[in-house]
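User: I'm preparing a small set of examples for a lab meeting where we compare how different chains pack in three dimensions. I only have the primary sequence for this one, and I'd like the structure in token form so I can line it up with the others. Please keep the answer compact; I'll paste it straight into my notes.
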Amino acid sequence: MIPRRGGRSDATGYKMVDSVTVRNFRSFKDVKVDDCRRINVIVGDNGSGKTALLEAIFLAAGVTPELILRTRRWRGDSAQGQVQGTPEDIHDALWSDLFYKFQTSKPALVKLEGRGDENRSVTVTLHKKGQVRVIAPDRKRPHDRPRVVPAGPAKPISFRWSIKSYGDFSIDPTLEDGKLIFSDAPAEPMRASFLAANQTAPSTEMANRFSALSQSFDEQDFIDSFSQIFPTISHLSLEMSVGMPMIYAKVDGLPRKLPLNLASGGMNKLVSILLTITAQSGGIVLIDEIENGFYYKHMPTIWQSLLAFARRYDCQLFVSTHSSECLDALARVAEESPEEFCMLRAVHSGDGTTIRRFDGERFAHAVLDSVEVR
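Assistant: Understood. Below is the structure token output for the 374-residue chain.
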């Protein structure tokens, strides 16, 4: 298996998100998850808040509200180009669903706590429609009544980040000719990537990441690790296809190399995940519904590879799944290194989503003893 990079041999001695607080955001009224580990697996029923938790972390790790629109596209919302209506109605339609039960009178908060730049938060405030302002009477005409006039908010929506190493700043999306405009952020985002359940990383992005490995002479370790999971692939290389760089695979029995995405969707997904981990060294990778596209018999070696890569590149993973076979495979890996895992069970009720946390040892024992944990 791929060796550790950087010489740090302890399981928790690296920068990471220790806790996550989510308040008045999507399905979360007020939740705090403490003692996160290197690999954090999120389970729960459909609509329980698994993806919402990943999106909350992704937003806090970034520095732009555009991330919200991006996650919406991943969920299938394509109506984000030209928008129509009054500015207040447009902002309400675009952002009000971010707030728990549409309670836009209260700000939404996502807070990450860690050991470095992981100490950060984002507060989202949607200003009320129908605001008014009072114009005092002229001093020379004291008998006139104060005038009350409508005043649409100058900043209908505000995203305010607070980052330990930088300070506070706000980004307030505005509308120009029906298009949303985002100002440039003064601070850099935390290293973070979101791999959506129904999306595949662009081939050029994967090619760039594979090229970065090749330039540092790390591509052979990557290929060897990948071939342990899929032995029919003996080599990966970067090739040009109609002028575009793509990852090609040498597949046993074929006379020519094949673009990896044509060889197998599951293989392509695994390469995308592993390359994302290499690119986000020292950061976090968020993976929604990891089991999609993988044959269940590959899951034990896939989990072993994810742990090995996360160790080598000092990366932290937050991963959601519905699959009992996926959890069975994970439990056997977690049994060997319980200090590096935890399970977060999302439960939705009339009072919002709550999170129950199980440490690696309890989770592994429960699964191996055939206790239903999903």
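A couple of notes for your slides: The radius of gyration is 24 Å. The longest strand covers residues 17-25.

User: Perfect, thanks.
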